[in-house]
Amino acid sequence: MSLFSSSKLGSGTRTGGGATAAPAGVTGGLASGITSGRLPTRQLGLRKTAKITDEEFEKLADFIYNKTGISISIKRKYLLENRLGARLSELGLKTFKEYYDYLQLDKNRAAEMEVICEKVTTNETSFYRDARQLGIFQNEMLKETLAKQEALGRKELFIWSAGCSSGEEPYTLAIMLHEALGMSIIGWNIRITANDLSPAMLRLARAGVYTDYALRTTPKGIIAKYFDKVDAGYQVKPRVQKLVQFGPVNLSDPASTRRVPRSHIVFCRNVIIYFDDAMKKKAITAFYDNLLPGGHLFLGHSESIHKLSTAFRPVPKPGAICYKKEE
Length: 327
Ligand SMILES: C[S@@+](CC[C@H](N)C(=O)[O-])C[C@H]1O[C@@H](n2cnc3c(N)ncnc32)[C@H](O)[C@@H]1O
Known about the structure:
The chain is 41% helix and 17% strand. By secondary structure, the chain is of the alpha/beta class. It has two domains: 7-120, Chemotaxis receptor methyltransferase CheR, N-terminal domain (Chemotaxis Receptor Methyltransferase Cher, domain 1, Orthogonal Bundle); 131-324, Rossmann fold, CATH 3.40.50. It has a seven-stranded mixed sheet. Strands 3-5-4 form a three-stranded antiparallel sheet. The longest helix has 21 residues, at 131-151. Pfam families: CheR, CheR_N. This is protein-glutamate O-methyltransferase. Keywords: Methyltransferase, S-adenosyl-L-methionine, Transferase.
């Protein structure tokens, strides 16, 4: 999966809140129509966007890496150009050098960071994503942790969902907790801390309204039980929402990750795939420090900490892997 594989390039998977899931090719279709020469740019009333030089690319890529930990290779230069080119036009800037200076010096530079986050992150997600891994979590690690906590007389469970995008992952975990505990959930202190870099994604997550597309792999019975039908789609019920607390956390900033309350379980799926090894190590250290002894870390199916950290014990399962911090 590449850095730029999300709906922003037309895969049509932006699924949260008011956003519409566009069919494949629609988002990117305008640009491809222009480049394939079907209609001249002037006829469409569109301005040509600036070209990015290698030097401008290096500076911008370094800036993005330092702020977000996201690593963009020179091979993806054209994608940065595509995604940010229109932004330059909106700001009345002619070159990427001017845009870089804007990011350093303009009075609106803090707000522009939000735009950059939007443009460079891949936010693809869905409810019940990677059902096999979630099944193992629900039937084994979750059950085990709840039983252990109960035996200790501590009816509390803390989970961190890092890089939660528009909220589908932490809400899925909250639903699984309802399923595991049933009515007895009222006697438990449960907190799912859900974070993302992108303020726009966090706004969608807090709203908790989703289209059919976001729920495409969710069992029908679960939708009926935990969602209310609303005009814009399906809204997560308050009893699910109240288990989840959303807030901004930047995994590339240790001061930010240290503020996350300690957890029994950490989910960080499909996030570190966009980081280089140095940044991956930083994130894994943050998860290790955050986890309570005996806690579990769940990464995406194509992500591994092999060669990056020996701190965790791998727990291989058929079709999935998770990592355990020693007791
Ligand atoms: C592909 S989504 C994964 C969503 C969810 N975890 C899942 O697997 O369905 C990746 C998310 O990571 C977030 N992200 C990227 N870099 C981050 C960073 N440095 N700190 C926090 N979140 C980050 C992005 O904003 C994006 O919403």
